[in-house]
Design a protein that fits this description.
The protein is of the alpha/beta class. Helix content is 39%, strand content 21%. Strand 7, helix 8 and strand 8 form a beta-alpha-beta unit. Helix 2 packs across helix 3 and helix 5 crosses helix 11. The C terminus is likely disordered.
Length: 305
């Protein structure tokens, strides 16, 4: 097939049918008659040598080639639309953009409150949705524009994925205020031996943050001290508040947990928290503004506690 022979307007039809699952609805979206939309689909089928959409009892079913083509086509069309509109035309005070982020439950607790407050002041008509995506699927979600960006312990290596270091952090332990280590001297820090004598509770989220807690414990032969695994970080303060359990959490999370005691873990490694996005949104006016705001709010060099 010769790309020069492709009418690029047909790609808008492909994207619209993919979104709506209907030739009629796609035509309505594009202000085209049903016959014009059907003709455009026929030309697409001829160019690609594939049906692209096949009628089935449940409606139009996408072919394998369509599933390969459509997400990238949609993403690039959105980027072109934003580029043509021009960065000078983005006015956060008037924009009604909806941004889609990927944050874990911990990310929601740490990042959404300050982000929401800033947006209410600077971009009051915009909206934010958190679409929690597992770390291995982040690159695909970015490429298909399911999400605009993600924040987490991410080390993207896929082509087209761009990243910015927001901050470095370290783990600490939190316990009930009267908790004491079973062995050794009581101080501001816990040794590996003291942690090895404790009963540990960890959070095991499925999204972009902190599966590395268990990895850190495993690397130090402490995984067998885990007696309870919670799905959400939000459950940990209540679990340790009136028990002999010890939870390992990021230092920035522990800083806001009144009524609990925080212990330094000198042997715990640092980890990097990154903001990641796809190159296809690199010059998108709204995305540039959002990434600038996220860097302003959270981009900092955090010191070891």
């Amino acid at each position: 097939m010769n790309f020069r022979q492709l009418d690029l307007n047909l790609l808008r039809v492909l994207a619209a049918i993919h979104r709506s699952g209907s030739v009629t609805a796609a035509g309505r979206e594009l202000a085209l008659s049903q016959s014009a939309t059907s003709n455009a689909l026929a030309r697409l089928r001829s160019f690609f040598g594939d049906d692209l959409f096949v009628r089935s009892p449940g409606g139009l079913r996408r072919t394998h080639l369509c599933e390969q083509l459509a997400p990238a086509v949609i993403a690039h069309l959105q980027s072109l639309e934003s580029l043509v509109s021009g960065i000078e035309n983005f006015d956060p005070a008037r924009s009604d953009t909806t941004w889609r982020l990927s944050l874990s439950d911990l990310g929601e607790m740490l990042f959404l409150p300050p982000l929401s407050a800033a947006l209410r002041q600077r971009a009051p008509h915009t909206r934010v949705s958190n679409i929690s995506v597992a770390a291995p699927a982040v690159a695909t979600a970015l490429e298909t524009r399911e999400i605009d960006c993600a924040i987490g312990i991410l080390q993207p290596k896929q082509r087209g994925i761009q990243a910015e270091l927001l901050f470095r952090e370290q783990y600490v332990a939190i316990t009930a205020p009267d908790w004491r280590p079973a062995t050794g001297k009581v101080g501001a820090s816990l040794s590996r031996a003291q942690l090895g004598a404790a009963s540990l509770v960890v959070a095991s989220p499925t999204a972009t943050f902190h599966s590395s807690v268990e990895e850190m414990l495993e690397s130090r032969q402490l995984a067998d001290r885990i007696v309870l695994r919670a799905r959400h970080f939000g459950a940990l303060p209540d679990l340790v508040a009136n028990s002999d359990l010890l939870a390992i959490v990021p230092a920035m999370y522990a800083a806001n947990r009144a009524g609990l005691r925080a212990w330094k873990l000198p042997f715990a490694p640092h980890y990097d928290v990154r903001l990641v996005w796809h190159a296809i949104t690199g010059r998108d006016p709204a995305q540039l503004w959002l990434r600038g705001l996220l860097h302003e709010l959270f981009g900092r060099t955090r010191r070891t506690p």
